[in-house]
Task: inverse folding
């Protein structure tokens, strides 16, 4: 797909600049595997991560954050109440909160937990195709007329249905990242395949979405697409120096930290898909 | 010890190639410290890690994995039941499972937990000399006639006894890694000392063993030796670029990802020890 | 501030050399985010980290360690009893223990937990300015006459009061790190700002303090200042090779591992502040 200059580059730059200028405090209730990369991604982007997950602290702490990030990766019965309490409080206070439904379909326990969280009105849900499809089917039933083997088309339709049902933005990561509010659909084309060989890159881009939405809550759709593109650009630039997944991880974080306007504007590749 | 060309190089290459081709799903119930490196090691090798530890999910999820990895590093009373449930289910379903008895002798609580896990018939147990000696003594009593100060000889004899008693493969990491099924003993000579200055390298090689055994369950002995050698080779190749333990960690993962047949065949160094 | 040659370089070198020679076993009950960097920092410095946090293991294990490190970063109700039990046992056995009161003021629950831990007589408390101020105010009331907007002055006075009240050493990280025993005050001037863009650097330097105090318990004040300076020097040396926070993290650990006497003596920058 040919990239055309459009309004997305300046939007993405505005979001990144706002994160750097405001350093929004982002509460992360995320899985153990991802904590290091999530925190370092947020710091590199200019945000301020706070990894507090304990239910006793939520009433005191969550009111002070700019956004909440919930990720169910290493879900357990004693973390779920915290996730729900924090999400509920964020919703009540009108603060954006973002859900990463890792492996949503891996068990009945996990799928139910994700459905309960979806009912607390996440501002954004980001997953891979199978996660979004599992969640959409469990939320709104099988997508009508879509039983093709084209997973990307399934995912787009599932994302649209889930966005409508949840009232939030839904993003699907893949070769092209899809973002929809149930009506509009855009594709973010940045990124490199080797990012999938690094654990927690999905978790980390969801955290970045939380930071971007934190500085522009009225435009969660645009902020989500911007964050996906910026993270993908950091991956592309890191890839030019990388010799494998571990050096890519390092260069990617460095590039996110150093990303300047010219590079971002020339590389942002977001297009309308519908 | 002079390295002689033998059948091990092609075996190790066959195992690594199978992991890359099949991308086996490996459930990891491992300690907090190691989760990042374990997941990235498995991804670099071509496997597919799943860090699910919650007891509610095991009946749904464990039947879909190719192998299970249990590591007691940051053991606690509320993780142990999950470890046992997953190990039991894996055993019942005939799936390989691998145990890393980190610091087995550090406390009575931990030693008992390890003994309970050993009774669930791990396909492979990998530890360092003191861990295997502690576990062997607690399982089968002091090794007869071995009270020398030569820890490596103690470890070999302890490993043999533990392998016989447990019915599985036992591997002991050290300057030379020892692998035994109670009868055969081989030594894997690859690796560099600085790997011990990186946290969770032991945990990670045990995860790699799980991936190798997953693609060749009938030959767990060979798969274990292959995994130890491949990981050691990645360390050797990484060491040629490293300036310290943190850059070694990075280069090692990159090298594991990029390891090609020629390098592997020329470097694999596994010899019979008995 | 002009650096003058003084006795601190040789002291810092003596502490680092002792850690390398003795490889003290340091029990770490630390937050999930920091575990990887804490363990790798201790290993690079020559110490031996043990990440055991389970209350059942403390009576067996804690008596064997040279020092204990407690960090409340991802505090929860079921970890707090372990922290208190280990701290109490360390105190009873005359072993040094070091507290990192991460985000002490973030919630009532957390502040109370920190106060309970302070009552167990930590050998050293290290935090940033806002953490030390929150803890000092909660321990001894508002610092008299200090209501200026100069946070660094507030912090110094708060540190002094907290040191007097707790009977231990208090360190405050910042542009200049402050160390006080309630009477003496020194500033450690090493380090670079980008270290704050790496998660868990604060946690890691507190772990390093534990290792340094472990090899010189009678001189916890000097050992604390040495550790802060050595960690800062590793950051300075790493910075000369870094292209961003992720490569700084790597080079910093490599430099800590390779730090030699000449570099340390020429760079140590600790001065009396009162």
Result:
């Amino acid at each position: 797909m040919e990239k055309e200059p459009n309004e997305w580059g300046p939007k993405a730059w505005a979001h990144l600049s706002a994160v750097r200028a405001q350093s929004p405090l982002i509460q992360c209730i995320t899985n153990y595997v991802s904590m290091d990369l999530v925190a370092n991604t947020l710091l590199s982007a200019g945000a301020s991560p706070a990894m507090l997950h304990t239910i006793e602290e939520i009433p005191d702490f969550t009111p002070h954050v700019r956004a909440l990030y919930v990720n169910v990766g290493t879900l357990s019965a004693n973390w779920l109440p915290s996730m729900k309490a924090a999400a509920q409080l964020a919703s009540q206070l009108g603060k954006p909160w973002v859900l990463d439904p890792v492996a949503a379909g891996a068990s009945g326990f996990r799928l139910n937990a994700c459905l309960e969280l979806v009912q607390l009105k996440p501002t954004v849900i980001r997953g891979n195709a199978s996660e979004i499809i599992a969640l959409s089917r469990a939320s709104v039933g099988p997508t009508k007329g879509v039983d093709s083997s084209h997973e990307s088309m399934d995912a787009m339709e599932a994302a649209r249905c889930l966005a409508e049902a949840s009232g939030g933005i839904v993003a699907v990561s893949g070769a092209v990242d899809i973002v929809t509010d149930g009506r509009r659909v855009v594709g973010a084309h940045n990124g490199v395949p080797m990012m999938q060989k690094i654990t927690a890159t999905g978790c980390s881009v969801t955290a970045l979405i939380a930071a971007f939405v934190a500085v522009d809550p009225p435009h969660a759709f645009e902020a989500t697409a911007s964050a996906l593109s910026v993270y993908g650009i950091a991956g592309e630039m890191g890839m030019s120096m990388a010799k494998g997944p571990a050096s890519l991880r390092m260069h990617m974080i460095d590039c996110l930290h150093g990303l300047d306007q010219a590079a971002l504007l020339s590389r942002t590749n977001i297009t309308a898909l519908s």
